[in-house]
């Protein structure tokens, strides 16, 4: 009479995966079995066994230690894709589960008097999917490593882009990229031309505006000023080099009550069509940079360790102080208007915040000018 015994042992280990910073997860599983035929025993682990001598009734009880041959299989899989290789069937490889599968086929087989214990060590690689915004200067590139599903290089274009990255073990990851082109130059309503630069992910005019008209080229800006003083009397030079200074209402093109309604979330103000007065969020991205990486290496008073690494090219254009009825700060400071749309019917009323640079400060500051003060204006391209 033949007796068959089967033992199955399952061990599953897993770790959670998050986007972007996820580490590969390891899944361990093994199966094994034992077989007994007459008085020949092949089992694993320790078991009590009875041995009968032929023709007699001599009996001995003892511990029979098995003879095992272990086989380890190392393999890889992508998360969310069922694994069925090597006789294993692991269908649940989803992120965040406590177990990575619980069904394994029995791989036990007798080989030259040995039972075989098959061990699977499965490394599960994560699949990434995320969204990113990117502003390019010049032309849109082929991003290194980007591929279409067919393997063809992907040329980035303006707008929505879906880029497939083949990460570890051929795991197909996806980047949803919104790309925006930053043109080399832009013109204002007076056909003044400004170079542009990409800073902190936004497309900026690289110089302060000096327009006397709004974008239509017809409507005159009421309060645009050129810095002049007894020390710096050359208005033409100051206009060309530093740009003009604008009051709050002129900069944002506000109504008589000081209100302006943003269009699609932007306040165009004196900026060219398709461009806008920087929001406080956009200015904050610049504010987080070291001051020496924002300022030009020339025209600023000492001490001067400026590198202009960012390309923002901030010049010390000074400001008009309405309370004192004078221009001040040329060579020592720069100030720009920002906007922060309020929650009241989308009407912008905040004229109290600006970005300020001082020649002696290592970091940009948040300024609180009066509405009638004259500050510089930079523009940001609409996304």
- What percentage of amino acids are in beta strands? 35-45%
Shape: elongated
Main sheet specs: 4 strands, mixed
Cα-atom radius of gyration: 36 Å
Name the features.
383 residues, 4-stranded mixed beta sheet, 26 strands, elongated, disordered N terminus, mainly beta, 3 domains, 36% strand
Describe the structure.
With 383 residues, the chain is mainly β. It folds into 3 domains: 2-125, no CATH class; 129-182, no CATH class; 185-381, no CATH class. The protein has helices at residues 235-242, 248-252, 280-287; strands spanning 2-5, 25-31, 34-37, 40-42, 46-52, 59-65, 68-78, 110-111, 114-125, 129-137, 142-147, 153-155, 159-166, 172-182, 185-187, 193-199, 202-205, 224-225, 245-246, 275-276, 317-321, 326-330, 333-337, 354-358, 365-367, 380-381. The strands form 10 sheets. Strands 2, 7, 8 and 9 form a 4-stranded mixed beta sheet that branches. The chain is elongated, with a radius of gyration of 36 Å.
Q: What order do the helices and strands come in, and which of them pair?
A:
Layout: E1 2-5, E2 25-31, E3 34-37, E4 40-42, E5 46-52, E6 59-65, E7 68-78, E8 110-111, E9 114-125, E10 129-137, E11 142-147, E12 153-155, E13 159-166, E14 172-182, E15 185-187, E16 193-199, E17 202-205, E18 224-225, H1 235-242, E19 245-246, H2 248-252, E20 275-276, H3 280-287, E21 317-321, E22 326-330, E23 333-337, E24 354-358, E25 365-367, E26 380-381
Parallel strand pairs: 7-9, 10-14
Antiparallel strand pairs: 1-3, 2-9, 3-4, 5-6, 8-9, 11-12, 13-14, 15-16, 16-17, 18-19, 20-26, 21-22, 23-24, 24-25
């Amino acid at each position: 009479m033949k007796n068959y015994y089967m033992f199955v042992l399952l061990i599953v280990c897993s770790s959670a995966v998050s986007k972007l910073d996820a580490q590969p997860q390891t899944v361990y599983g093994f199966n094994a079995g034992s077989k007994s035929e007459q008085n020949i025993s092949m089992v694993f682990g320790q078991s009590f066994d009875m041995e009968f001598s032929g023709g007699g009734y001599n009996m001995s009880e003892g511990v029979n230690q098995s003879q095992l041959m272990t086989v380890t299989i190392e393999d890889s899989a992508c998360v969310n894709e069922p694994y069925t290789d090597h006789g294993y069937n692991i269908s649940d490889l989803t992120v965040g589960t406590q177990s990575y599968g619980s069904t394994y086929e029995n791989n036990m087989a007798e080989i030259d008097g040995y039972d075989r214990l098959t061990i699977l060590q499965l490394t599960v690689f994560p699949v990434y999917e995320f969204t990113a915004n990117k502003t390019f200067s010049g032309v849109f590139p082929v991003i290194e490593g980007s591929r279409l599903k067919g393997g063809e290089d992907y040329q980035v274009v303006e707008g929505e882009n879906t880029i497939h990255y083949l990460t570890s073990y051929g795991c197909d990851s996806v980047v949803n990229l919104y790309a925006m082109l930053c043109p080399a130059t832009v013109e204002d309503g007076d056909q003044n031309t400004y170079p542009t630069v990409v800073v902190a992910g936004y497309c900026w005019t690289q110089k302060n505006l000096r327009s006397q008209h709004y974008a239509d080229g017809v409507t005159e800006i009421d309060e645009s000023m050129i810095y002049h003083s007894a020390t710096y009397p050359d208005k033409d030079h100051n206009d060309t080099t530093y740009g003009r200074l604008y009051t709050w209402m002129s900069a944002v093109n506000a109504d008589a009550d000081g209100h302006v309604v943003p269009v699609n979330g932007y306040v165009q103000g004196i900026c060219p069509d398709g461009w806008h007065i920087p929001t406080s969020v956009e200015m904050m991205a610049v504010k987080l940079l070291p001051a020496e990486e924002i300022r030009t290496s020339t025209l600023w008073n000492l001490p001067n360790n400026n590198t202009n690494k960012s390309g923002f090219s901030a010049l010390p254009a000074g400001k008009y102080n309405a309370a004192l009825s004078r221009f001040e700060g040329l060579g020592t400071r720069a100030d720009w208007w920002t906007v922060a749309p309020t929650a009241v019917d989308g009407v912008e009323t905040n004229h109290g915040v600006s970005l300020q640079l001082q020649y002696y400060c290592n970091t940009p500051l948040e300024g609180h000018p009066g509405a009638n003060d004259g500050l510089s204006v930079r523009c940001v391209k609409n996304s």
